[in-house]
Amino acid sequence: MKINIRRLAQGQDCTARIPGICNHNPETTVLAHDRYGFFGYGVKPHDLTGCFVCSSCHDLLDGRTKADGLPDTIHEYWRGAHCRTLQIIGELLDEKDS
Length: 98
Prior knowledge:
It contains 3 helices and 2 strands. The chain has helices at about 5-10, 55-60, 75-95; strands at about 30, 50-55. A two-stranded antiparallel sheet has the order 1-2. The protein starts with a helix and ends with a helix.
């Protein structure tokens, strides 16, 4: 069974929820890919390495915007978002199997 994880992101709540950054708008949620230490721009890793994030959190995680005091904690937000995203994907897959 092929699952389009990018499509699953549409309409989901942001899993990063970065304080002062997140726009909390599910209409802007996309699958953001983790590139830390593995890939460069233009090369996307597997969709399972991604997380569901709003456009504002995505911009920060991808480095398109900056926020004071957050660079040291960006990886923590990413790890939490990734775990929450995997949980959502698992729940959606369970629903499809029922």
